[in-house]
Structure formats: C-alpha cells, structure tokens
Amino acid sequence: MAEDLEDPREVPWHPRYAESLKGHGAALQHFEAAFAAGRPHHAWLITGPMGIGKATLAYKLAMRALSHGGDSGQTTRWVHARSHPDLGLLERSFNDSKPKRLRAEISVDDVRQFGGFFERTASTGGWKVGIVDCVDDLNAESANALLKLVEEPPVKSLLLLVCHQPGRALRTLRSRCLRLPLKPLAAAETRAILEALPVDKKPTTDAIDRATRLSGGSPGQALQLLNSTGAKAFDQFAANSGRNASTNTAIASLFSSRAAAVADFEIFMDLLLNWLAGEAAHRRSITLAELHAQLGRKAAITTAYNLDRRVAVLEALTMLEGALKAA
User: Fold this and answer.
1) Which H, E and C letters describe the chain, residue by residue?
2) d(CA 68, CA 88)
3) Are 158 and 128 within 8 A, CB to CB?
4) CA-to-CA distance for 203 and 196, rounded, in angstroms?
5) I want to staple 299 with a disulfide (CB 3.0 to 4.6 A). Which of 60, 94, 269, 270 is the partner?
6) How would you write the pLDDT of the chain (327 residues) with one tens digit per residue?
7) What pTM was computed for the model?
8) Quick one: which of 265, 298, 292 has its CA closest to 277?
9) How do 178-181 and 128-133 pair as beta strands?
C-alpha cells in the first residue's frame, strides 16, 4: 500500500475510475460489436495523441469483457481497487533505489511477469484481460517479449495496448494488432472532464477556460495546465502584444526560484514553441522557423542540465522579440 501512495500515477482521476467516456463512443461501439459477435480480435492497439483518453477507453473495454454475462458492479469495484483477479496491467515499475523511483522504461522482466499472468486460468471462468500502458515505454527487448505474447495468445485472452506514437512502435507488433485510432476531444468534452474532476478544491472558471483553450483536445494536457505557472506565464506573454524588456522580465520572474517545477518551464516552452511555429507558418518567415529550432534546443539543454529557468525564459523572450521585429 505504501508503494501505491508513492506512485505519482495514483491520483483520484486515474483512468480506471472514470465513470463515463467522453468523445470515444464510436470506438467503444466498434469493440462491443466485435465482442458481441463472439470472437473478438485478441489484441487491440489504441492509438492517438497523449492525454485524450486512450487508457480510459482501455479500462472501459476491459470492464466490458470482464463483466460479460456477470455482475458489472462487482467488476467495477474490483477494477477500482486494483484487485480484479483476471485483469493484468503492464506499465513502468519501480526500481530498487531508496526512495523508489519509476523506471524510464518497461523492462523485459515486467513483460515476462505480465505473460505469466495469462498462463493462469481465469478465476471468474471468463476472459483474462491485459492492459499495456503504454507501448511507447517499451524498449527493444521488452517489445520483442510482448510480441511473442501477442503472436501466441492464450485462449480467451484479450490484450489492450495503449500507444501514443504508433509509428515508433515495433512494426511486427503493430501488424499483429487491430488498430483502434482515437482523435482529440472537442472543447466542450474537455471542459466537461475538467469540471467533473474528483478534487476537494475545484479549479476556477478562468483556469478551466485557459486549460481547455490550450490543451488541443487533450484532457491529460489540460490537467497539467490547470493552475500551472507555465500556462499562466504563457497567457501573460500572449496578452502583451507590445512586448518589451519590461514585460519579458516580468514573465521570466515567474521562474525565478531554482526550485520551480521543471514541468512549469516545459509547459511554458511547449506553448511558446507552438505559438512560434504558428507565427512562422503564418508569416512564412525563415527567421522565425530557425528561431523555433534554436529555442527548442535551448529548452532541452536547460532541462537536461537543470540550468536557471528564469534566465532561459528571459533569453528566449528577448530573442523572440528581436526576431519578430526582423520578420
């Protein structure tokens, strides 16, 4: 239980708790039709941008299969408690350090343990379901180990693979799965998810407006943007058309603390780079396009070497101010 509490993924809005599925009803119906036919494909690759609800869909599909002809209420309670005997999960595990930290990748040992789950007989006499969250975290060795499981599936087993960038996944693994592509959500759907967050302190209307507007249809991204210093800093940048040294310094000061969250800096730079890419395309400016590449490299170096993020933001804004005047 202690490890569960330390797991940063264990939040009240974890995908397995979602009461409803927003925006992906067609994908759910497609799966249910295949399942109702009696012989659904054994491996489904759920693809789409990060944060749009792929894992939420995977849990919904798993609960559909696990409760088929049974007590759906009991299935839901077991899944919420991470105690369903016929549901396996493959994700990054913790290393052996103190304090324990999440590994950067899914190891081959994790995949082998996941495969062992399918060797056991289903406790409820129905399906055994495994969720892989996500394929992008596999390394070459673990991806090949998972491929063997997909190629030789146990009887009455179902694999649900979440994948953010299918083009980077092992080609043979992709070819063995039935693709279930998802698209970003509409703004109203993203807003509805944010408004229904199971938290004690509800986000303000302004925070929800900002997160919805900047999320690009990704509730996961919107969750990061809620009350983010990085998003607030970008809003301040976007609201000041007359950019100068004074406004640049004010924005950079939001990152003055060396202890400021790295995520805030990354969010700000992602938003700034997306804005700059749009400006470069709109103005057809090589100068802005070159600056986009330069700032992207600078942001990566700042994060990698834990450099002063206030200085990095000020330099980026100053360079941008000059490039905009030149363009």
Assistant:
1) CHHHHHCCCCCCCCHHHCCCCCCCHHHHHHHHHHHHCCCCCCEEEEECCCCCCHHHHHHHHHHHHHCCCCCHHHHHHHHHCCCCCCEEEECCCECCCCCCCECCCECHHHHHHHHHHHHCCCCCCCCEEEEEECHHHECHHHHHHHHHHHHCCCCCEEEEEEECCHHHCCHHHHHCCEEEECCCCCHHHHHHHHHCCCCCCCCCHHHHHHHHHHCCCCHHHHHHHCCCHHHHHHHHHHHCCCCCHHHHHHHHHHHCCCCCCHHHHHHHHHHHHHHHHHHHHHHCCHHHHHHHHHHHHHHHHHHHCCCCHHHHHHHHHHHHHHHHHHC
2) 17
3) yes
4) 10
5) 269
6) 334 447 888 889 999 999 889 999 999 999 999 988 888 899 999 999 999 999 999 999 999 999 976 678 999 999 999 999 999 999 999 888 777 788 889 999 999 999 999 999 898 888 999 999 999 999 999 999 999 999 998 889 999 999 999 999 999 999 999 999 999 999 999 999 999 998 888 888 988 998 998 888 999 989 888 878 898 899 889 888 777 899 999 999 999 876 557 778 988 998 899 899 999 999 999 999 999 999 999 998 998 888 999 999 999 999 999 999 887
7) 0.77
8) 292
9) unpaired
d(CA 290, CA 294): 6
- Classify residue 255 by burial, with Cβ atoms within 10 Å: 0-12, 13-18, 19+: buried
Rounded Cα–Cα distance for residues 103 and 263 (Å): 18
| Token code pair at residue 96 | 């052996």
Please, how many CA atoms are within 13 Å of residue 95, restricted to the half-sphere of its CB?
A: 8
Specify the amino acid at residue 60: K
Question: Token digits for 46?
Answer: 């759920």
Q: Rounded to the nearest 5 degrees, what angle is found at the Cα of 57, between the Cα atoms of 55 and 59?
A: 70
Residue 67 CA to its chain's centroid (Å): 27
What's the CA gap between 231 and 224, in Å, rounded? Answer: 9
Closest CA to 165 of 45, 48, 53: 48
